[in-house]
Structure formats: C-alpha cells, structure tokens
Amino acid sequence: MGSEKRVKISVQNLNFYYGDFHALHDISMDMYENHVTALIGPSGCGKSTFLRCINRMNDLILGTRVEGKLLLDGKDLYDPKVDVVEVRRKVGMVFQKPNPFPKSIFENVAYGLRVNGVKDKKFIAHRVEESLKMAAIWDEVKDRLHSSALGLSGGQQQRLCIARALAMEPEVLLMDEPASALDPIATQKIEDLIFELKKRFTIVIVTHNMQQAARVSDYTAFFYMGRLVEVDTTDVIFTRPKEKQTEDYITGRFG
Amino acid sequence: MDKRKVIQSLAFGLFRMAALVNALALAILIYFLVKNGISAISWEFLTQPPRNMMTEGGIMPCIVGTFLLSFGSMLVALPLGVASAIYLNEYAKPGLAVRIIRIGINNLAGVPSIVFGLFGLAFFAISLHFKVSLLTGMFTLGFLTLPVVISSTEEALRSVPNTYREASLGLGATKWQTIYKVVLPAALPGILTGAILSLSRAAGETAAIMYSAAVFFTPKMISSIFDPVMALPYHIYVLATAGTEIDKTRPLQYGTALVLIALIFSMNFIAIYLRARMQKKR
Ligand SMILES: Nc1ncnc2c1ncn2[C@@H]1O[C@H](COP(=O)(O)OP(=O)(O)O)[C@@H](O)[C@H]1O
Ligand SMILES: [Mg+2]
C-alpha cells in the first residue's frame, strides 16, 4: 500500500431510511483513491443499501431518505444542486446478478457513451475495445462483438458488465457481490481483474465471502444490523480486529 | 384403485373436456362458415363492389373499409395507450391521481360498444363536425380499444426486469433515455401483440361504427377521411337484417363472414409470429 493516500469518498454521519425503517445508522468512514474497500457483514446488515447510497441508486426507491453527508472529492453527492445523472457517470456500478442489455456485446459497452452524447464512431469503437480489454474479456468476444450479449456465459456476462461500466471511465467502481452468481473459475477471473482495476479506479466491493475480502481488498468495513462496527486495513481486520463482534464474524462464530 | 387417484383422473378428465369444448366450438364455427360461405368466394367477390341492391357483386369496399378503420383506430389508440401506460408504469407516483386514472381505464373497458358508437356520433361526428366518417370511426374504435392497449402495454413494461433500468441509470442515462433505449425495445413484442389483438377486435366491431362511420352502401370509393365507409361486420348485419332479399343474399352473408374471420385470424397469427420472432432475436 502506498504511503500517500488520498481520501476519495468521505462518509459523515450517514443515516438511511426505507420509509420508517432506519436501515443505516450514523455511518462515518473514508475510502481511499486507488484502493479497494470491502464491505462485509451478515445478510441484511445494510451493505447493499450503503453501496447504493454512493451512486444514489436508492433515489429510485420510493419513500427513501438520506441524512448526513457523502462527499466525493469533497463535494456532497446529496447536495440539491448536484445532478444525479452526473453522479452516476462518475460512480459506476456492477450488480450482483449479471444484467447485460438484450443488445449486442458491442452495443452494451457503447451504451453509456451513446446516452452521454458521444457520436464519434471511431472513438466509440476504440473505447469499447479498450474497455473489453481492461475487463479481460476481449479475447473471448472480439470475433462476435455484434452477436447478442445474452449468449455469453454468466462469468462472461459479468465481465461484460464490468467493461460496460469501465467504458464511462468512472472514478469510482461499486461492486455488489459481483462474483456471487459465478463458478470458482469465473470468480478467480473477476478477482484478478479487481487487482488490475484498482490501479486506475477507486473500488468499493460488497462480498459475503470472507476469503474474497481478504484477497482483494486493502480496507475492510464490517457492518452489523445497519451499523458500521469497525473499519480498518484488511490486514488488521482479519488478524487483530478491535471489536469482539468483528472477530466472531471473521472466525465464523456467527453470521 | 386408490380413491384419490380416481378423483384425480375424474377431475383431469373434466378439465380436459372443458378445454376441448373451446377447440370444438371454434372448429364447428369454422366448419359452418366454410361450408356455407366458400361457394360465395371468388376473385370477383373480393375485388368488386356490391351490385344490384347488394344481391350480387362483391365486398371490396367493405374489406378496404375494415382495413382503414382498424389500422386507423390504432393510429389513435397506440400512441395514446402506450404513452398512458408509460406514464402509469414508469413515471407516476402511486397515489390518488393514479388510482382515479386506473379506475377510469377499467370502467372504459366495461362500456358497451353501442355506447361508444353513440358517443362517437354525438362527440366526434356532431360536436367536432367530423360527420359520419372514417375519421369518426377511427377515433371511436381507438377509444374503444384503448384500455386493451394500455393494459397490454403495462403488462409488457412490467415484464421488463428492473435490473435493465438500474443498469441503464447506473451508466448515467436519464430516465427518458432508459425508457426509450432499453425498456421500450424490451417491451416491444408485448406491446405489438396487444396492438394487433386490439386491431382484430376493432376489425370485428359492429355496434361502435354503425352510427359513427359505416354506411350500408356507398357507390363511390372512399377519397377522404371525412367520407363514410362500408365495413365487413356491418355489411353482414345489413345483409342479414335490412336487405330486401335476405334469403337470396345468404351465401353473400356467409362469404362476408368467412372473409372477416380469415382477416382476424391472420392478424392474430401475425401477432403470434411477431412475438415469437422477437423473443428469439434477443
Ligand atoms: N427496497 C427496500 N425497502 C425496504 N427495506 C429494504 C429494501 N431493501 C433492503 N431493505 C432492508 O434493509 C436492510 C438492509 O438490506 P441490504 O442493504 O440489502 O442488506 P445486505 O446487502 O447487507 O444483505 C434489510 O433489513 C432489508 O430488509
Ligand atoms: Mg446485498
């Protein structure tokens, strides 16, 4: 881990509500540029909810409410003046289940550029290729760019979705259990990929797999029942956590 | 044999019978129409206007009229219905307004078609000065089929997985871009199927057009949307009830019915074919 690290995302006293249900309690933590932060915790503890706050995806759910601050490069994402479309362009997301559009492989990756007004065909083709290469799927699809993305295997679809997000050159990449629907080999590929991607992006990944968190992340945050119990370097969390709850979870005594 | 098994096979047998009755009813209807109507079908019948007080000649103006009416009604119902469904399903926040709109749509679906016909006459033909015409018929049938278009479109929109919407918005697309570029294309087979089914419904509609669009005989070919038209279902009605020589025109009546049914069936088959093809393409 480099010595000069810069805070990319700063969360300050964040509370989140689904209607009356208080899902996140007073979360405060920082996430660093070009580092991977893993969010772990038992199912239902609020990992996805927290992740979806970072690109304002929860705005889509009726009756939700956010309190506190969520700063990206020091600017509050929930400031009324902020354009949510702009936020999502900077903060890309990869979902739990691969969700390519029912379009061609090429069009899937080109989609984000097109909706953001890019017209230059050469530029689009170049960026599509670059993104597919970055997502380590280029060699598998380069001969069938114009066939349907739905013909790919689950693991390939997920890497395509990563490529689709990368094509926007986001600053932050959010991943919600990106490998949970995949077999071990596909999972391995995604993990290798994360290792490469963090050189260029800030990554926040939700995982229910302890080994995965240990393998891919630099920082780990442990959530429990809507609260952030502990956040530290992955090394500290997995070897000498300060909280008893964290230790119990890591060692598999509950969850 | 076990008593439960007897009951089971009895129940299944009954259900199978019920299903068979449907197919049987259709088969009998078609047999009946073909048997009585096939002799009337000829090139002349399909391409000539009626002659001699409608006791001879063909039904070409009725075929044309029914085509114009049913496709014309879609020009009204499709944009309006799809737009309403998009609003209800993608934009509207649940609440009193949406509930009232839905109640309105459901009640519209329950309005008898003769009432639509009278409404068309009173509102479009007289108040808006459209006269008894193709245009009035298009609007009347358009509103009649609107609830079907809305509900089939809503159904199609609901079947588009939310993950598509999230993926699109997550890439910085606006809501409208998401609907236009992802949701609508994915919903298209369902929307088209609904549209074609409403089309065939409009083609068979009689009561709604008898005051608003159709005349029982017009010697000239339609030249503007303000002209009235002849139509297949109304022609059957006229020949069977109001003609001077009902018995003499019997074969013509069956022949017209056969043409109408063939038209409607082929529309339905096109709908099925289109849907199957588009689903395969994805
Ligand atoms: N759309 C929603 N509406 C209401 N409650 C929700 C919604 N999504 C999640 N929740 C609740 O919020 C809590 C946290 O959920 P989630 O963030 O999905 O947990 P995790 O990703 O850690 O499994 C759970 O209690 C869940 O039931
Ligand atoms: Mg989750």
Structure write-up:
The complex is a heterodimer of chains A (255) and B (282). Chain A is an alpha/beta fold. Chain A has a single domain, classed as Rossmann fold (3-Layer(aba) Sandwich), CATH 3.40.50.300. Chain A has helices at residues 47-54, 84-90, 105-115, 121-134, 138-141, 154-166, 184-197, 210-216, 234-239, 244-250; strands spanning 7-18, 21-32, 36-40, 64-72, 75-76, 91-94, 172-176, 202-206, 219-224, 227-233. Chain A has a six-stranded mixed β-sheet, with helices on both faces. The longest helix of chain A is centred in the middle third of the chain and has 14 residues, at 121-134. Chain A starts with 6 loop residues before the first strand and ends in a 5-residue tail after the last helix. The model of chain A has no long low-confidence stretch (mean pLDDT 93). With 282 residues, chain B is mostly helical. Chain B contains eleven helices and two strands. Chain B has helices at residues 3-37, 43-47, 60-91, 96-110, 113-127, 134-158, 162-170, 175-204, 207-210, 232-241, 250-281; strands at 50-51, 56-57. Chain B has a two-stranded antiparallel ribbon. In chain B, α5 packs across α6. Chain B starts with a helix and ends with a helix. The mean pLDDT of chain B is 91. Chain A binds chain B through residues 55, 57, 60, 62, 85-86, 88-89, 92-93, 95, 97, 99-102, 111-112, 114-116, 148, 150, 161, 164-165, 168, and chain B through 93-94, 161, 163-174, 177, 181-182, 185-186, 281-282. Residues 18, 21, 23, 41, 43-49, 61 of chain A line the site of adenosine-5'-diphosphate.
